[in-house]
User: What shape does this take?
Amino acid sequence: MIVINKKAMSSSTSTIPSIIAIDGPAASGKSTIAKLLADSLDYMFFDTGVMYRAITWTALQREVSIADESAVTSLAKSVLVDIQPASKSDGRTCDVFVENQDITWKIRRPIVDANVSVVSAYPGVRSALAAQQRRIGMRGRVVMVGRDIGTVVLPEANLKIYLDASAEVRARRRFNEIIARNESADYDEILTKIIERDRVDSTRKVAPLKAADDAVIVNSDNLNSDEVFQQIKALCI
Ligand code: DC
Assistant: This one.
């Protein structure tokens, strides 16, 4: 389903938008669609969630208490997270480095999933990372993915998409992905975690997850990823 509100309609133009923001809840398929879109337009793909994940992983690695807001914030201000185009065909959409260490897959571990919402709710962490994200986004020819790209990081984005799906559909997709890798998974546990991450992401005081007023809302409950991609691509031409 696709919902185009009045503001989104009035701001559309016939040229390909240079800054494309895709926001939405956990496991909504934003990164997959954004990568396809970026590749098809020859734009840079930038998943901002990896920055929050990289800070969370570094804090855990250095045994900085996740509950210690000021220590985690200092870390976010001092650690350089480097994101490069994918160097391997192992399913990654980009390479993520902290101090020359490739942590691309380490930041996907359950321990990072379990702590990243707390880290990303700290205002000092957000302002440190959002400033870097904005600097990159303003160069243009970019598809940037996150929770607050259209609302806070790049409110001037030429096209804003809010990609949504019910928690049950997102949990089912995540469950299927894990099973396809021959790993074990518990659907109810995945669903509970997704609902909890939605709650933390959408109720935090700073830059909560929400659709921008001028976003195009795409609900993928009844669409496969190719159908979502085609709908979003059509908005770019
Ligand atoms: O999209 P993801 O699951 O990789 O995001 C990881 C966490 O980072 C998630 O808890 C939401 C947060 N995040 C955010 O607050 N703002 C962004 N622009 C991107 C991610």
User: Anything to note?
Assistant: Residues 26, 48-49, 52-53, 116-117, 120, 146-149, 197, 201 surround 2'-deoxycytidine-5'-monophosphate (CB under 6 Å).
